[in-house]
Amino acid sequence: MTPPFPWVIMFAMAHGISRMMAALLAAAALVSSGIAVPRDDAPPLSIELKSTVWAGDLEALARRRAIRVLVPYNKTLYFVDLGGVQRGISYDFMHAFEDALNTKLKRGDIKIHVVFIPVSRDKLIPMLLAGEGDVVAANLTITPERSKLVDFVTPAATGVKEIVVTGLGAPPLRSMDDLAGRQVYVQPSTSYYQSLLALNESFRRRKLPPVKLKESPARFETEDLLEMANAGLVQTVVADDYLAHFWSRVYPNLTVHDDLVLRTGGDIAFAIRKNSPKLKAELDAFTSAHREGTLFGNITLQKYLQQTHWAKNAVSEAELKKFNTMVALFRKYGEQYRIDWLLMAAQGYQESQLDQTRRSGVGAVGVMQLMPATGKQMQVGDISELEANIHGGVKYVRFMVDTYYKDDAMDSLNKVLFTFAAYNAGPARVRALRKEAASLHLDPNVWFDNVERVAAQRIGRETVQYVSNIYKYYIAYSLVQDDVERELEDVAKGPKK
To answer: Is 279 helix (H, G, I), strand (E, B) or coil?
Structure first.
């Protein structure tokens, strides 16, 4: 018989929880299932990742000794730092809740443990409703639509406004009407998206052009979009006012438009399943004593200012000039070697900021930071010359894709993402990460939210950040390219009659 809660133990060990805690969780699962607990000297159990479904109020969770917290993987709310250490505002809050709850219930050594399950934002409420999690700790705004599905606990922040934030290179905004016809980058599963739809409806009634909603990938968080706006990757986004002001202290190129308000009086709260009054009562009381404005809340918010990483300005005017001079070369060799040329341009920016004069301390050369031996192996000519350098970089990525991932069941994007990971960490290391991901029932053929998780825990942020940065630059260049192609189409159509 398989223990009913094996994923609890896997998450405990995969996310840096001590062996003692993992052992306690294992004991709890085995005892509750009627299986004898193995001796301390027994070999480690083979743990599989399974999304065990259950529901119930606090008593049911206490019997299982686990409260599953659904969180977006996010560099302020929840992330895994070097060495597998869990960190973040939601982590600190729920870890403190765990301590307080166990003390109140006098659990002694037989504790209830909080276990974090990182998922993309669009899956938070569906997984909660399906019984695959017990608390959503994701800074959700309470809306009538969400309240029909879940219960919210005492808000962690009240009176929140959703406001417009512009970034580097954005044109000035004097009123909300200036958004008519402009592009706003937004994550579709957020309340911001609904607010923008409401704004567009008001524009329609007034016969103004709608806001052009450019949907971000599901894995992008508000802070990612603010980071991108600061770097000039996108021009206009929406954020809760407290987040906008929080990040504007870190990102100097953000302009916070307090007067351009899409929603007022918002409350931010954790969500739980309906019909869980005892869990709600405990979370209500704890939140009231630890929310923003309390000593704990304020210290926790300040703590994570030090965890941010600055984006580079990949699409400023000067950088775009570099980019445009190289477009023809990236296109040429992207087509020749059947690789999305925008991905290769994004890697070139990550490696050298598209600077052919760049030389590394270990001898890597040019835009693609090729080692001379690699350039020689690729037989593309003198890699100190721009075209040969880009040719060699693209050809080398194709060589790695064909060598390591050609026959794997991956889509073309993931083949290149895994190649970038291998470029940074080495093919053997990535092979081991994929094998471990498969053993945890994560998808070994998908980088984001799957093998990426194992990489973060096993080798830290460097490779995760490397691939993530390239993907962000890829998205940014895609946005720019979309705009260029639309303009060319308009020119081809001629003037409107």
So the answer is: helix
